[in-house]
Amino acid sequence: MSRSHAIAAGLALAFALAGCGSDAEPTAAAPAVATPAATTASATDWSRMSCTMLSALDTVDFNPASNRAIGDAATKSSNPGIATAGAELEAAANRPDADEPGEGPIAISEAQIELAEACSSLYGDGNW
Fold it and tell me: CB under 8 Å, gap of 24 or more: what pairs does 15-18 form?
């Protein structure tokens, strides 16, 4: 399994498990998952991480939660192009109609393209 597919699988599992469970208070802390929050800010390459996360998506993945996570990682980038495109992706994923057919997924798609262009200008074409 490639690294990008492993990341995508991990994200998918995390999102799938996020809604599971009862309303009871947890009795123990959940085990740490390898996410941007689990690393120090100085050691995290937010640009590379967000570009890798974006490239791991299926070409028609307009899931608001997945795209919100990518946008959030991108906004933490020190690269202005990545950060701006990430903010736009996060905003598109937060739209009230983001998970309905029509304008919501179109906005997510356009923001994905902007982030992909920023990634290409920083890292070149291809998988990041």
Answer: 15/63, 15/65, 15/66, 15/69, 18/65
Query: In angstroms, rounded to a whole number, what is the distance separating the alpha carbons of residues 76 and 41?
Result: 9
The verdict on pTM exceeding 0.85 is no
- The answer to whether 117 and 91 have CB atoms below 8 angstroms apart is no
Q: Which residue has the tokens 């996410």?
A: 35
- Residues near 100 by beta carbon (within 8 Å), at least 6 away in sequence: none
Q: In the structure, how many helices (H) and strands (E) does the chain have? A: 5, 0
Return the residue matching tokens 């991108």: 74
Which residues, other chains included, contact 56 with Cβ-Cβ below 8 Å and sequence gap of 6+?
4, 5, 7, 8, 11
List, for residues 58-90, the tens digit of each pLDDT value: 777 899 999 999 999 999 999 999 999 999 999
The C-alpha angle with vertex 10 and arms to 7 and 16, in degrees rounded to 5, equals 140
- Helix H or strand E segment including 12: helix 3-18
Query: What residue has token string 């356009």?
Result: 110
Cβ contact 93:64 at 8 Å: yes
